[in-house]
Amino acid sequence: MKKLFLILLISFPFVINGQSKFSTTHSNQNLTCSSCHSCTIPTKENPCIKPCPRESMIRVDQKPEEGPRIIVIDKLRDTDIYAPVKFSHLAHAEMSDMTGGCRTCHHYNPPGNVIGCSDCHEVSRNRTDISKPDLKGAYHQQCMTCHRSWSGKTDCIECHAAKEKADLKPVKAKDEKAKRIHPEIKTPDKITYNTKTDRGKLVTFYHNDHTDLFRLECSQCHSNESCAKCHSQIKKPADLKITFAEQHKKCSNCHETKNNCNTCHSNKETERFNHKVSTGFDLSKFHSKLSCIRCHTTPAKFTGLNKDCVTCHGSWSWDNFNHKITGLVLDELHGELDCESCHKEKSYASPSCGDCHDDKTYPKEKPGKLIKR
User: Fold this and answer.
1) Which structural domain, as residue segments, surrounds residue 85?
2) Residues with Cβ < 8 Å from 237, sequence gap 6 or more?
3) Which pLDDT value is given to residue 206?
């Protein structure tokens, strides 16, 4: 009992102080203690902190023109050789639109704010937490990784100007005006790929279906390719062979590409996605206005759902269902019947009259009055 009391006594200030800080920095998040702590009673000595899931739970996106045009990076003053870097923020923000937006660089973005690098990364290299880069390391890791992918160059002079040659004039108000620098990247509606396969040479890709209908993020397909895709200065060997896995890497995240080639490949251009044709389930007038995520709750996973209505709606009865919403008001003779009397095996697409009537069929004869919905 004494041991338990001591644990509570030690952890009580931690819980109070931690909750106070938690409430100010995470107030807009629907979090509980278990969101951050892996044990039931965290203490100062053993807080049981989980890795911060910031990338998946926190997101802020801004338009490129909402940010500054130029940023002067001058927090690191440990050299007499180079001048502060005048970073073209607008141009980079415009290019990052295709690969994930602000999160491409600002990977920790609480609601209502975009956090700068120095807010999380220490200026000093003498840090205690070596799992997180210091500010200089964060800058170079972010910039060099991207520049290496398209230019192959990571020399200091690619970003840094020598002090005697640098433009040391301060940034003026006119330089902050958000006038587009990079040409606008317009998303295509349809792309037809002509492949080298023997069967199914054409792959018809409807871009807007994947972004607007299936809700895929740009970064899921275009990660780390915004510059290299169009501006690559690296010459690839002429005999370089791209493997099957590399060719289908992006598609295989959602599609089974090894065995079901005809899902994407055809000898003619295919039509846009049709839910009834592809899945056998007709959205019709009752489900057509729903977003995919209402039924397909796991991102980028659209298979394996049970088509029975009760999967989403539960068991229907006269207590919880008004038949009027279907556009058909049942008459007195049919108003008291169980649903299964007309909808066999809980299939609501094709009502049947056969159990009671030998001479009536639906929809020629209707068990009530049609109304406008």
Assistant:
1) 64-176
2) none
3) 93
Task: Determine the Cα–Cα distance for residues 310 and 316; give it in Å rounded to an integer.
Answer: 8
Residue 44 shares a structural domain with residue 10:
yes
- As for how many domains the chain has, the answer is 4
Same-domain status, 312 and 290: no
Element (H, E) at 132: none
Identify whether 258 is part of a domain. Answer: yes
Specify whether 290 is located in the same domain as 310. no
Residues 285/349, Cβ–Cβ less than 8 Å = no
Q: 174-181: long-range contacts (C-beta < 8 A, 24 or more apart)?
A: 175/69, 175/70, 176/68, 176/69, 176/70, 177/69, 178/64, 178/65, 178/66, 178/67, 178/69, 178/90, 179/69, 180/64, 180/65, 180/90, 180/94, 181/88, 181/90, 181/91, 181/94
Number of neighbouring beta carbons within 10 Å of residue 98: 19
Residue 205, Cβ neighbours under 10 Å: how many? 14
169: left (phi over 0), alpha (psi -120 to 50) or beta: beta
Q: Residues for the chain: how many in total? A: 373
Flag whether 300 is in a domain.
no
Residues 75 and 117 in one domain: yes
3-state helix vs strand vs coil in the chain, percent to 5 = 35, 10, 60
Residue 182 maps to a domain = no
Q: Is residue 33, in this structure, part of any structural domain at all?
A: yes
Which residues fall within 8 angstroms of residue 190, CB to CB, at 6 or more apart? 204, 205, 206, 207
With cut-offs at 50, 70 and 90, classify the pLDDT of residue 26.
Answer: low
pTM, two decimals, is 0.58
At residue 353, what are phi and psi to the nearest 5 degrees? -105, -5
* Residue burial 231-244, b: 16+ Cβ < 10 Å; e: rest: eeeeeeeeeeeeee
| Residue 215 vs residue 55, higher pLDDT | 215
pLDDT at 323 over 50: yes
In this model, does residue 176 exceed pLDDT 80? no
Query: Exposure of 229 by Cβ count < 10 A (0-12 exposed, 13-18 middle, 19+ buried)?
Result: middle
CB within 8 Å of 80: residues ≥ 6 apart = 163
Q: How far apart are CA 277 and CA 107, in angstroms?
A: 40
CA distance linking residue 156 with residue 160, whole number of Å: 6
